[in-house]
Amino acid sequence: MINDWDYLGNRPCNHRKLKKALEYLTLILLLSSCSSDKKSVLDDMPTLYSAPQAVALNTEEGYFINPVIGDSIQPLINSLGEPILTGVPVPVKGKIIPPESVSQSIIVPAGEPELCTLTIRNHI
Questions:
Q1: 30-53: pLDDT as tens digits
Q2: DSSP symbol at 100
Q3: d(CA 71, CA 63)
């Protein structure tokens, strides 16, 4: 005769009833989680960086003070001590070189490859 009682003296649960209860519990949890108006933790977190500041572009007069940080803007100085003009197109004049005035390229053969043995010593 099969004993329907466990070692503590409790009757075992019917697995069909347990499965049905689990289905109802899942349905209740699903409906309660979808109807909540809670914000997620990520919605309350502060941003890592502040929003960028927008400044209008002044191409007519330029800037003497940086409008973003309020510091003065120093001109760029070259090695001769003269200021470098920025925002101005630089004219480039090319020069044509006749191909006859250039010497021919020299081809240097690489030679035969040489095989050598290599001993690798790993000390860990």
A1: 887 766 566 666 667 777 888 877
A2: G
A3: 11
Q: Examine residue 29 and state whether it is found in any structural domain, yes or no.
A: yes
Token pair 């519990």 is found at 25
Say if 83 falls within a structural domain: no
In whole angstroms, give the CA distance from residue 73 to residue 87: 15
What gap in Å lies between CA 67 and CA 61, rounded to an integer?
Answer: 13
In the chain, how many domains are there?
1
pTM exceeds cut of 0.85: no
Q: pLDDT tens-digit profile of 39-93?
A: 666 667 777 888 877 778 877 777 777 777 778 778 888 999 998 887 788 788 9
Instruction: Please give the Cα distance from 83 to 74 (Å, whole number).
Output: 10
Domain containing residue 2? 1-34
